[in-house]
């Protein structure tokens, strides 16, 4: 067996290592272990690996280790196929560079205000992450200076080919220094991508990560889309009603194991952390407690859970979705042992849908949407447990005469019925864990077709061809939508595409779930799914469109200025011969698919 490689073995810079330790990462994924040494040495690489294998850290960590913050011009350029991926990669760079003083990363993509991008580029950025169309715009303007570029990364090259960007990519490569270091990542290797490698990479090291993972048929796999309710709330609901024996909950960091264990213990669950900071003796003791029913829940990182073989583990919860589909297979393999059935539950945030798609593709098995237990379901479950306790006590305790006499005397002295006394005692008994549970139930996203689009939109061309102002983006029921007012309008040069992009990026709401948009002079209205959480609304209040905060609020009708109807208007055209003209979404009486046009 080969020796396990840890991040500490990879010769990364001290600031980068401190950032890794701060977030609690311990062991690199296969693509990271293979790519980091080559990139640290200045070599080119051709990485063939699926999305979700940890590619971002594979190139970000070594390139950050070689960055010079004294040089203000961009030293690293990352090309990504979609604005969503560009934002994710930029956020990852910021996280991994948290211990590098004065570091700046800038995402640039279509649909974002060009003026703010120009201002940011003028101030300087060490790393630029962008979509091909917008990078080309800045190169033509002369606002993006790549004379001092040290490294260029092509992320998801096959996606850029599929979306028609490959010519743009080659144009950008022609306008970068020949001395640059190049890293190209692609899940597949079509002829056009191989052509780019042959022409623009220099003696590249090929790294191929196999994706032939499979999962046991006796493991039921479900996911919950964490939207509008937080993970801890969802987890506690599941723990309330899901009959489990032993459970392992996986998180990404060592810190998270301790924090989640403490929160579950505070809620009355027998839980403990398991991470790499614990000595071997303590880790073994924790696993032994799980085996001997002295512990029900273990919260672990991937490294700490390696080798756990406990038959009573009936459930695995991926509290944090793994970046690596191979890690997912290893995680859920902790259940379903010795021919038993098991259940794997996966929590997925809206921005993590790409990882869900990748896991399904790699394991060749669908993961079905689960129903989060409602407040009524949890209440019923608690009542059933409570009444069962009463039944068991009556069966087990043959002599309750002392208590019968005590309560009979109390009933006589205070002139209260036995039912009233029983009610008071029941209230006292359940006070710490109320039988009546009140949750704000939020419906999960049920539509999953967007995962087939791999979570992204073509960034080229979103400048002038967004959804028309008075046209519904998608035929849908207004019953599931609320109308919101945002404080940006025509006079601020706002366009529907700007609004869609801002809401989709910040709230994690796919563009197809964003309804009717109506622009007015000083404000606009937008229809959004019913049940938006306070956290999402608070975040959207601060989001800026055309350099103005949205200040989103539930629409309550006209407020000085524009006169408009609060009821969404649907333009069906004038009636001809007693029949409406075909509606948007229909052609010659047949339904068609109208999607937002792509912009630049």
Automatic annotation (TrEMBL):
It comes from the Bacteria. Residues 231-380 form the Helicase C-terminal domain. SMART domains: DEXDc (SM00487), HELICc (SM00490). The keyword Nucleotide-binding applies. Its EC number is 3.6.4.13. One of its GO terms (molecular function) is RNA helicase activity. This is ATP-dependent RNA helicase DeaD. It comes from Cellvibrio mixtus.
């Amino acid at each position: 067996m080969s020796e396990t490689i840890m991040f500490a073995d990879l010769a990364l810079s001290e600031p980068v290592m401190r950032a890794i330790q701060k977030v609690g990462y311990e062991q690199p994924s296969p693509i990271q272990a293979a790519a980091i040494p080559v990139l640290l040495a200045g070599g080119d690489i051709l990485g063939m690996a699926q999305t979700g294998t940890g590619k971002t850290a594979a190139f970000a960590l070594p390139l950050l280790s070689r960055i010079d913050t004294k040089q203000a011009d961009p030293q690293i350029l990352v090309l990504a196929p979609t604005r969503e991926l560009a934002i994710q990669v930029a956020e990852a760079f910021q996280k991994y560079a948290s211990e590098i003083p004065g570091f700046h990363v800038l995402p640039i993509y279509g649909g974002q205000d060009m003026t703010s991008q120009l201002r940011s580029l003028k101030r300087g950025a060490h790393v630029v992450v962008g979509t091909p169309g917008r990078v080309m715009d800045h190169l033509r303007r002369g606002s993006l200076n790549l004379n001092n570029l040290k490294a260029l990364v092509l992320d998801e090259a096959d996606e850029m080919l599929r979306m028609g960007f490959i010519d743009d990519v080659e144009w950008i490569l022609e306008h970068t220094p020949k001395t640059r270091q190049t890293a190209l990542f692609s899940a597949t290797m079509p002829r056009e991508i191989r052509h780019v490698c042959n022409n623009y990479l220099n003696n590249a090291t090929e790294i191929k990560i196999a994706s032939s993972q499979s999962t046991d048929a006796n493991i039921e796999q479900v996911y919950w889309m964490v939207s509008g309710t937080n993970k801890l709330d969802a987890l506690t609901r599941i723990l309330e009603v899901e009959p489990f024996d032993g459970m392992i909950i996986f998180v990404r960091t060592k810190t998270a194991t301790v924090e989640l264990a403490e929160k579950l213990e505070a809620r009355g669950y027998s839980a403990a952390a398991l991470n790499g900071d614990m000595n071997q003796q303590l880790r073994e003791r924790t696993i032994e407690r799980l085996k001997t029913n002295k512990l029900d829940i273990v919260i672990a990182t991937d490294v700490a859970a390696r080798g756990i073989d406990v038959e009573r583990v009936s459930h695995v919860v991926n509290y944090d979705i793994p970046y690596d589909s191979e890690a997912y297979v290893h995680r859920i393999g902790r259940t379903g042992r010795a021919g038993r059935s098991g259940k794997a539950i996966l929590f997925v945030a809206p921005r993590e849908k790409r990882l869900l798609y990748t896991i399904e593709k790699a394991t060749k098995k669908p993961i079905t949407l689960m129903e989060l237990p409602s407040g009524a379901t949890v209440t019923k479950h608690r009542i059933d447990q409570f009444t069962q306790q009463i039944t068991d006590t009556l069966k087990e305790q043959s002599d309750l005469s002392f208590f019968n006499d005590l309560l009979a005397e109390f009933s006589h002295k205070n002139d209260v019925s036995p039912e009233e006394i029983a009610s008071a005692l029941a209230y006292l008994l359940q006070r710490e864990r109320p039988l009546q549970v009140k949750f704000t139930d939020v419906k999960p996203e049920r539509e999953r077709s967007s995962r087939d689009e791999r979570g992204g939109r073509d960034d080229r061309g979103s400048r002038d061809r967004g959804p028309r102002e008075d046209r519904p983006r998608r035929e849908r029921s207004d019953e599931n939508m609320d109308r919101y007012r945002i404080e940006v309008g025509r006079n601020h040069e706002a366009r529907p595409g700007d609004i869609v992009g801002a809401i989709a990026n910040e709230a994690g709401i796919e563009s197809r779930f964003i309804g009717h948009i109506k622009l007015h002079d000083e404000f606009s209205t937008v229809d959004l799914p019913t049940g938006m959480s306070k956290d999402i609304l608070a975040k959207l209040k601060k989001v800026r469109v055309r350099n103005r905060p949205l200040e989103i609020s539930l629409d309550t009708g006209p407020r000085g200025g524009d006169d408009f109807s609060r009821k969404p208007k649907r333009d069906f055209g004038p009636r001809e011969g007693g029949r409406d003209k075909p509606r948007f979404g229909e052609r010659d009486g047949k339904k068609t698919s109208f999607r937002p046009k792509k912009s630049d």
